[in-house]
Amino acid sequence: MVLKIDFNSDEAIYIQLRNQIIMGIATDVIREGDTLPSVRQMADHIGINMHTVNKAYSVLRQEGFVKLDRRRGAVVSLDVDKIQAIEEMRQNLDVVLACGICRDISRNEVHQLVDEIYDRYTRPSVSR
Predict the structure, then answer these.
(1) d(C-alpha 87, C-alpha 42), whole Å
(2) What span, in angstroms and rounded, lies between the C-alpha atoms of 100 and 110?
(3) pLDDT digits over 30-45, tens only?
(4) Which CATH number is 13-76 given?
(5) Residue 5 near residue 17, CB atoms below 8 Å
(6) Keywords assigned by UniProt (predicted)?
(7) Beta strands at 73-76 and 66-69: parallel, antiparallel or unpaired
(8) Where does residue 16 rank: exposed (0-12), middle (13-18), buried (19+ CB within 10 A)?
């Protein structure tokens, strides 16, 4: 698993780690049932504090992307609540789209961008 963490970013490292893992799941690099590296292994691999990895794994668990198993550690297990996922997406997109409108980005440009990004993450099991 290749992770891209920007230590100069204003975004918290645990959020970057969370996002990278979600993108790995979306692109099928990480699959349901896969075990993520232990907190210690991930921290050593990236060169960050174990508490930061633990926080990222906890957020992923709360969001339904992983389950924590005492024997196996963090296991990718997609607990899909589609209604909740759509509402979270709506909240996130609301601000992003408002920023785009302020910058005079057209509806067509937004749709083109969404299609381009969606195509990057489309897995075989996802219907279009």
Answers:
(1) 31
(2) 8
(3) 999 999 999 999 999 9
(4) 1.10.10.10
(5) yes
(6) DNA-binding, Transcription, Transcription regulation
(7) antiparallel
(8) buried
* Structural contact between residues 78 and 65, judged by C-beta atoms closer than 8 angstroms: yes
Instruction: Break the chain into its structural domains and give their ranges.
Output: 13-76, 82-121
Distance in angstroms (rounded) separating the CA atoms of residues 117 and 111: 10
**Long-range CB contacts for residues 118-126, cutoff 8 Å, separation at least 24:** 120/27, 121/23, 121/26, 121/27, 123/26, 123/27, 123/28, 124/28
Q: Nearest-CA neighbor of 46 among 69, 77, 18?
A: 18
Query: 28: which 2 tokens?
Result: 């099928």
Six token digits for residue 2: 């290749």
- Letter for the amino acid at 60? L
pTM of the model: 0.78
